[in-house]
Q: What sequence folds into this?
């Protein structure tokens, strides 16, 4: 009988303890997308939060970038096994955007330009855990990496950090997104190697 959980490989000597199990350190920033890259003009870009009661909170690009921002330095981990450590971003905390949102919802379904969706517990977007990011390493976020703005939820696998984000729909019941419907794990904790539905 094995005393190790499935997928456990231990750590090699000298391996960075900031790397979750099964991850390798990437020097570049791989580009992975489920479809074509949308290009959204800033004068037509908007971000919305729709509550379960049907209320819509809306921000234009100018309104979003005028809000107080933070510059988190975080590690990011892709389900395809690469990680980047100490990445720096600029964005608006979801705590700021939710200040005037009244909700009793427990879940969020994130929508992107281009049709991509991903689901998260609302708690994973609040209390300093998530941002709408629009700059990376001191530069505007490029379309290939989700620009003009993407969700940034660094404590979960990076597919939860939806590129080209356009809105969040609040729900009283969980609703799986694109990759979750295709067999990826519903939550996606890299430290627990929650890659696929049966992990």
A:
């Amino acid at each position: 009988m094995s005393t190790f959980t499935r997928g456990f490989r231990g750590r090699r000597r000298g391996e960075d303890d900031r790397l979750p199990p099964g991850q390798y350190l990437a020097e570049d920033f791989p580009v992975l997308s489920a479809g074509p890259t949308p290009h959204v003009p800033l004068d037509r870009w908007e971000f919305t939060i729709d509550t379960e009661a049907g209320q819509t909170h809306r921000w234009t690009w100018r309104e979003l970038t005028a809000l107080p921002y933070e510059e988190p330095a975080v590690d990011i981990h892709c389900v395809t096994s690469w990680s980047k450590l100490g990445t720096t971003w600029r964005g608006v905390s979801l705590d700021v955007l939710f200040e005037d949102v009244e909700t009793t919802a427990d879940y969020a379904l994130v929508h992107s330009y281009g049709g991509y969706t991903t689901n998260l517990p609302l708690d994973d977007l609040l209390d300093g855990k998530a941002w709408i990011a629009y700059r990376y390493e001191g530069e505007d976020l490029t379309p290939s990496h989700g620009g003009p703005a993407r969700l940034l939820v660094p404590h979960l696998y990076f597919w939860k950090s939806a590129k080209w984000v356009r809105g969040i729909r609040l729900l009283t019941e969980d609703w799986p997104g694109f990759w979750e419907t295709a067999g990826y794990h519903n939550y996606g904790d890299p430290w627990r190697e929650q890659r696929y539905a049966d992990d």
About this structure: Residues 89 and 138 are 7 Å apart (CA to CA). The first strand starts at residue 24 and ends at 25. The chain has three helices and eleven strands. The chain has one domain: 42-192.
